[in-house]
Q: What sequence folds into this?
């Protein structure tokens, strides 16, 4: 029997619910990543630092209370984890608030792992891809959004906000409309119109902050200021953006599934040598590392993989942080120096500053991993290599990595220490369905590959969720605090 949604009357009630879930044997604590203190702020903040960046980054973590009951229940759920389970990743008992999983929701996660036999011979390693494009919205963000949704349901809320450049908002819009949650999405003025329309078509209202020259970071800093002033929380809107500490717990299930897929015997679990993750903000990488570490702490696995962060050349703050071994404060990139072709091809993964980049850099360094940069030429060549070498897999399974996620395969050529006997898992973060025009341009002069892509997209379109009955509203607003607050107050209901 499912638990009913309960009303959260105060911040104190929220704190009790966070550390002592009703009717469950597994409890979690919310602590600051920097001071380590228990923290139950409803807008996911902490005042232990006074630097401006501290209002923008993820600074809280959700930690399980590791009791004998927890160990027993989680290990059992790992061994019984099924790739056909109707609750998807929510069957794993190391997830917070899985008791609030809604009925009749399309399963999230349980994505396939494919061995690339031909590319392995070409690139000189045993290459696998974890195809996150098989999630309901065609992107890994569904894992994160589900965890934000579970916490919102636990708190008894019916409204949420998110700031996104595209994929996270699309995922959030799809899940929110299915649960009758009002979602207001904030995007920067330079966001592609096609992305804005996709979000609106799935029922989310959209606030466009600034003009076409307003970039992601400028808009997000304004959004973070509104959040810090408790504007959202006072209106009973949950924040589903990167600051939400539950999101990375969705990402950790990727690690769980990789171990399951590598291990024929659940009692003798295998781990790849390298996990390569496309990285901008850094949350996906940080979450996957969290998953492997938790499995190691439970003695489910005996070793940890090396984590590889890969981003676009010149727009990869994790790369800078790893090179400088900087994990105390964020690194930033100057996007004005970015090559135009690199900026266009990697638009969804560019980062001036990744808002989980500190934790991502810690993961790379502590795993004895590597940070890598690639450019537009690397991505274009990898797209052609993949479609030519793995044509049968791509066609039969409708596998088409979006350009920004192809960097996890392109990075393999850059890593000199990888040997032919090494196992490498490249995370394919999203499907190319939402990048049709760009892929077509990248394959100019290769009509046979363009036809293959067209067939894949036609097949995949049947799997991606359709739009909402009610189209979301759009409001364009100046990049000004009072103006943003006013339009938010207009749209909220």
A:
């Amino acid at each position: 029997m499912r638990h009913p949604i309960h009303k959260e009357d105060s911040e104190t009630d929220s704190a009790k619910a966070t550390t002592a879930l009703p009717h469950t044997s597994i409890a979690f604590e919310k602590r600051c990543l920097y001071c380590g203190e228990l923290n139950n702020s409803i807008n996911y903040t902490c005042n232990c630092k006074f630097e401006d960046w501290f209002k923008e980054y993820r600074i809280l973590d959700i930690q399980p209370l590791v009791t004998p009951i927890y160990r027993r229940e989680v290990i059992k759920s790992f061994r019984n984890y099924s790739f056909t389970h109707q609750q998807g990743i929510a069957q794993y008992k190391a997830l917070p608030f899985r008791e609030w999983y809604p009925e009749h929701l399309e399963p999230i996660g349980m994505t396939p792992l494919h061995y690339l036999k031909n590319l392995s011979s070409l690139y000189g390693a045993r290459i696998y891809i974890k195809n996150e494009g098989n999630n309901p919205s065609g992107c890994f963000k569904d894992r994160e959004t589900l965890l934000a949704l579970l916490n919102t349901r636990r708190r008894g809320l019916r409204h949420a906000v998110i700031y996104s450049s595209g994929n996270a908002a699309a995922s959030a819009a799809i899940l929110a409309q299915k649960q009758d949650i009002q979602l207001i999405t904030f995007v920067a003025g330079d966001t592609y119109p096609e992305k804005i329309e996709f979000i609106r078509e799935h029922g989310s209202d959209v606030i466009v902050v600034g003009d076409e020259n307003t970039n992601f970071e400028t808009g997000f800093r304004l959004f973070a200021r509104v959040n810090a002033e408790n504007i959202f929380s006072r209106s009973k809107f949950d924040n589903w953006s990167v600051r939400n500490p539950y999101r990375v717990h969705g990402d950790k299930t990727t690690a769980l599934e990789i171990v399951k897929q590598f291990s024929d015997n659940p009692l003798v679990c295998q781990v790849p040598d390298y996990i390569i993750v496309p990285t901008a903000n850094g949350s996906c990488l940080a979450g996957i590392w969290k998953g492997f570490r938790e499995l190691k702490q439970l003695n489910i696995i005996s070793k940890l993989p090396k984590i590889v962060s890969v981003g676009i050349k010149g727009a990869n703050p994790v790369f800078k942080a790893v090179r400088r071994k900087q994990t105390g404060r964020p690194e930033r990139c100057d996007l004005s120096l970015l090559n135009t072709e690199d900026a266009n091809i990697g638009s969804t993964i560019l980062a001036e500053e990744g808002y989980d980049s500190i934790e991502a850099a810690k993961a790379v360094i502590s795993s004895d991993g590597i940070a890598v940069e690639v450019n537009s030429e690397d991505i274009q060549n990898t797209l052609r290599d993949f479609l030519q070498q793995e044509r049968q897999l791509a066609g039969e399974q409708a596998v088409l990595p979006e350009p920004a996620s192809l960097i996890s395969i392109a990075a393999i050529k850059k890593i000199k220490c990888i040997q032919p006997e090494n196992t490498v898992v490249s995370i394919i973060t999203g499907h190319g369905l939402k990048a049709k025009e760009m892929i077509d341009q990248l394959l100019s002069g290769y009509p046979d590959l363009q036809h293959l892509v067209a067939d894949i997209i036609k097949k995949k379109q049947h799997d991606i969720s359709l739009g909402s009955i009610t189209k979301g509203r759009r409001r364009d607003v100046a990049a000004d605090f009072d103006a943003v607050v006013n339009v938010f107050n207009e749209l909220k209901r």
